[in-house]
Amino acid sequence: MRAHELWGTGRFDDFMQMMHEDILYIVNVDGQQVPYAMSAVGREDLRDRFELLLRTFNVTHFELLGVYPEPEHITSLVHGIYHHKATGEILDIKVRFRAWFIHDKIITRLEEIHDARYIEAFERFVFFIESAARID
Fold first, then answer.
1. Which residues does 85 contact at the CB level (< 8 Å), separation at least 6?
2. pTM listed for this prediction
3. Please, what are the domains in the chain?
């Protein structure tokens, strides 16, 4: 998928242009615990979420592992490695995406499916490390 290529090569503005103005972005992670993984409605709300993600992490690896066309949407599997900027911790994940398009170009709905417990545990771990560093 073109969107994966743009994200993986750091072409953020081009990536965002693929998102419909009224996109529905759904993530299966608790957005209160993990703000950079919060769901969003609309391109500007989504931009805010992704900018927070990019302020939090360096994306060092983003590889498309598979694309699975379905009648109404496309499902893809990605391997990502993200380095947490404040702590240096590594988030090594596989993520499943489901995308719905207009005219095969503009994404109107995007679902990002993680192992939510792993992501939430990672965030608690990072919070602990950052809190401990402030105490020292």
1. 55, 56, 57, 58
2. 0.86
3. 2-135 (3.10.450.50)
